[in-house]
Amino acid sequence: MIHSEESVAAERDRVRQRSRIEAAPPVLAVFTVEVAEGSTEVYVQRVRDVLSAALQLACTAEFGDDDLPVDEFPEWFTEISTRDGETSHEFSRNGRAAFLAASGGANPWRLQNWIYRFDPDEESRGWEFWDVVSAGPARVRVWVDSWGESFFGSLELRWLLYVAGAAHVEGPEVHTAGRWAAETGGL
């Protein structure tokens, strides 16, 4: 099993607050995100809010055949993931269109299907959130632990990154954790 209850709880904590440099694994994977419009700080908060809600469910909910509660997810995310893109949030509509264009025919994610990727017993999510670092006025880098793999299941992450307001997502690329630490000012 890739995700344990303990690793999901640690991941939830990293979403809320940057991890210590010495806690990093030897290598991390990174996605470089071009933010379509607005501040990168607002974009990062959107990503963190959705991941925080998903990981809180992963720590507390019983994943079964029933729908999981969605009250803690931001309105824009539940709208874009349930109504075929009908939302008043332009950043999310544009991100959905960019995801569909970039994914080569992948379908938009439905909210419950997306949430179920965070079930600790689910093995298709091949990453754990590590950090988000600003990389310029309209660019962020999303660091994840992929257990050293350069190719891993991450379509649900791409969905989130796009519908949170990305114009383009590159990666993943695998780097030493020292590269992440240098970007955070830790080295």
Instruction: Outline the low-pLDDT stretches.
Output: none
Strand order of the largest sheet: 2-3-1-4
How many H/I helical runs?
Answer: 7
Proportion in β-strands: 15-25%
Residue share in helices? 40-55%
Euclidean distance between termini CA atoms: 33 Å
The major beta sheet can be summarized as: 4 strands, antiparallel
Whole-number tally of structural domains: 1
Average of pLDDT = 91
Estimated structural class? alpha+beta
What's the number of extended β-strand segments? 4
Describe the structure.
With 187 residues, the chain is α+β, with helices and mostly antiparallel strands. It has one domain (5-184). The chain is built from 7 helices and 4 strands. It has helices spanning 5-16, 40-60, 75-80, 90-102, 111-116, 155-163, 177-184; strands at residues 27-35, 128-134, 139-145, 166-176. A 4-stranded antiparallel beta sheet has the order 2-3-1-4. A hairpin with a 4-residue loop joins strand 2 and strand 3. Helix 1 packs antiparallel against helix 2 and helix 4 (90-102) runs antiparallel to helix 6 (155-163). The protein is globular, with a radius of gyration of 16 Å. The protein starts with a helix and ends with a helix. The relative contact order is 0.26. The model has no long low-confidence stretch (mean pLDDT 91).
What's the quick description here?
The protein is 40% helix and 18% strand. By secondary structure, the protein is α+β, with helices and mostly antiparallel strands.
